[in-house]
Design brief:
The chain is globular, with a radius of gyration of 20 Å. The strands form two sheets. The protein has a seven-stranded mixed β-sheet, sandwiched between helices. It folds into two domains: 4-63, Ubiquitin-associated (UBA) domain (Helicase, Ruva Protein, domain 3); 77-273, Vaccinia Virus protein VP39 (Rossmann fold, 3-Layer(aba) Sandwich), CATH 3.40.50. The mean pLDDT is 96. The longest helix has 13 residues, at 22-34. It is built from twelve helices and nine strands. β4, α8 (143-155) and β5 form a beta-alpha-beta unit. By secondary structure, it is of the alpha/beta class. The termini are far apart. Helices cover 38% and strands 20% of the residues.
Length: 274
């Protein structure tokens, strides 16, 4: 089949059973197979012939391999984050944390940024892109995630502004930070996930005990030690966890505000010194 339009329609039809966004997936896979941006395919599909590789990529997606792993990246905020097996795929819901940080600091911005559980560097690099004078520290327990973070820092030209460290949350972190970002695991062990997630993304970045709160219990009590005066810690939460995580934060001496994601769900808690 040489007609790109027809190939996209057929691929989208096949992907309806495995994806919530079958047409978008098909377009992204076609662009990846052609080695161009999706917009180029949409603007002038007749310009291209369907590459043989397109069918191979669709077959991978039919097996529920995450689209981001197939492409090797996920666009997040204003940057492109390289990802692959072994790292958590960035979600658009997490952009709520960056929006909240921008609202809190305005143009002045933080000087020192800490990202706990940085993964491939998603939140840290998005924040550094907003404030060119800032520097950052990213901490993660996964060597695979840190390898991706290092590669992303180099590709984004941030290697001189960021330090990446292997560690368990803030256990080995010293000094104080104006902005602390954290998207910890917050899914209860018994919760069922879509096969794309459950069968491919790292369980250690998803699950956090019987109630999904294990990592908040470790992270929040240590935040007063490393949060600078006037600073803010912004934590991602599951949309049903606002009350319980707020109680943990208030017990640690924080004032708490909540921000919703684009779907109107509770998504980020802002912790400041009470």
């Amino acid at each position: 089949m040489s007609d790109v339009g027809s190939a996209l329609r057929e691929a989208a039809r096949r992907l309806e059973g495995v994806s919530d966004t079958p047409r978008l997936d098909a377009e992204l896979l076609m662009a990846h197979a052609l080695g161009v941006e999706r917009q180029s395919v949409l603007l002038d599909p007749a310009r291209y012939d369907v590459p043989v590789r397109f069918a191979e990529l669709v077959a991978l997606r039919m097996k529920r391999e995450p689209i981001a792993y197939i492409l090797g990246y996920r666009d997040f905020w204003t940057i492109r984050i390289g990802v692959g097996p072994g790292v958590l795929i960035p979600r658009s819901d997490s952009e709520t944390l960056i929006e909240a940080a921008i609202e809190h600091f305005d143009a002045a911005g933080p000087e020192r940024i800490l990202d706990l559980g940085t993964g491939p560097g998603t939140l840290l690099f998005a924040a550094l892109g907003e404030w060119p004078a800032a520097c950052g520290l990213g901490v993660d327990a996964s060597d695979v995630a840190l390898d991706y973070a290092n590669e992303n820092a180099l590709r984004l030209g941030l290697e001189n502004r960021v330090h990446l460290m292997r560690g368990n949350w803030a256990d080995q972190v010293e000094g104080r930070f104006d902005l602390i970002l954290c998207n910890p695991p917050y899914i209860a062990d018994s919760e069922a996930l879509m096969p794309d997630v459950a069968d491919h993304e790292p369980a250690g970045a998803l699950f956090a005990g019987a109630d999904g709160l294990d990592d908040y219990r470790r992270i929040i009590p240590d935040l007063p030690r490393i949060l600078a005066p006037g600073g803010v810690a912004i934590l991602e939460i599951g949309h049903m966890q606002r009350i319980l995580v707020t109680e943990l934060a208030e017990a640690a001496g924080f004032a708490v505000e909540c921000r919703q994601d684009l779907g109107g769900r509770d998504r980020a808690l802002l912790l400041t010194r009470a």
